[in-house]
Amino acid sequence: MSYLDQITSPTLLISEKITRANIKRMAEKAARNNKKLVPHWKTAQSHEIGNWAKEYGIKEVTASSIKQAEYLCGQGWDNIHIAFPFNPLEIPRLNFLAANQSLSLQLVNPITTQKLVEGLTNPVGFFIEIDAGYGRTGVHIADFGTIEKILRTATQSDKLKFKGFYLHPGHTYYTPDKAGIYEQSRQALHMLKIKYQSEFPELVTRVGDTPGCAVTEDFGDIDELGPGNFVFFDLMQAELGSCTKEDIAVCLAVPVVDVNFERKEILIHGGGVHLAKDVLVDASGNKNFGEVVYLNETGWTIPSDRSYLKSISQEHGLINASDSLLQSVKVGDLLGVLPVHSCMTADCMGEYLSLEGKTIDHCEGKSQ
Questions:
Q1: Beta partners for 195?
Q2: Which residues are in the Alanine racemase N-terminal domain (predicted)?
Q3: Whose CA is closest to 68, among 99, 47, 85, 92?
């Protein structure tokens, strides 16, 4: 039976072939530059896809929350890093997980550090998150007072081990000067390494964002790469130049419920609860919530004449359709939609259907 015969409602499809190619490409880039690849699993959030990653030499992984880390525990990872400023209310849960799994977390202030000193019962590593221009979170690169206070506070506990500095240059998503941002990041982490390496000879520096990691070759003396979205990619990454649309490994299969030839619109069952509401806006102000692909027995094809999702509500999606799509589509058909932001789409859907008809797990799945 074809995977298409299993679909009656919005379903997130995954191409194992494309996913593996994306993982392999990034693993080879890391190896070529003598860096460790520690992918951020906030995109895939899957045991099965994690097993694929291990086949390319990936031994450590990053989570975006303690819930996600808990889901990844017991899967044979050498270490799971929680890349979010740690929430001290979750120390009891952290202690439980750290009894059987090597974990590390992210610190941005001495208050949380002190609470960990007082509450940890099992060893945990930590990175200090650095802000070198993004402005979302982290200790500012010039705030040595806070860095020193975190380090000194941590020495009060034999359970907290300093691992190094973590930097997420997320502003690579918003500016064309990715090379400039990465040079800034390299310099920031190099300066910190020089300053603290004599006291902490084993410290490492890690940088993690897909746009930068995808296009950069010179990472300087950065030790580890931690991108996440590269596993699937999406339309946002294609627009940023991180990938081509052919590299996008997931698409949302959606049923056609109405066709309006006069307005050249197609109504689909597929909206914000399936795709999230990330949007691209072109120079003319047109909104794009996803682009149409044609499904077939082996996956999907990208048409030369573009049709796109012009608006979405909770369950509805409205496609601005090309003439060729209007001529071929009918109510009851299935179309594919490449997502603007694959991480959020996967999180919304909670599982994948492979092109071989196999259900693949996700942290947010209904069975979890």
A1: none
A2: 20-230
A3: 47
Model pLDDT for residues 233-283, shown as the tens digit of each residue: 999 999 999 999 999 999 999 999 999 999 999 999 999 999 999 999 999
Tokens of 86: 């740690």
- Position 184 confidence tier, pLDDT thresholds 50, 70, 90: confident
**Cβ-based neighbour number of residue 304 at 10 Å:** 7
Share of the chain above pLDDT 90, in %: 87
Domains and CATH numbers, the chain: 3-12+244-360 (2.40.37.20), 33-231 (3.20.20.10)
User: Cβ(277)–Cβ(348) under 8 Å?
Assistant: no
Q: Is-contact 86 116, C-beta < 8 A?
A: yes
Give this prediction's pTM: 0.94
Paired tokens of 167: 């930097």
The two structure tokens encoding residue 140 = 């500012």
**Cα dihedral across residues 317, 320, 325, 328: positive or negative:** positive
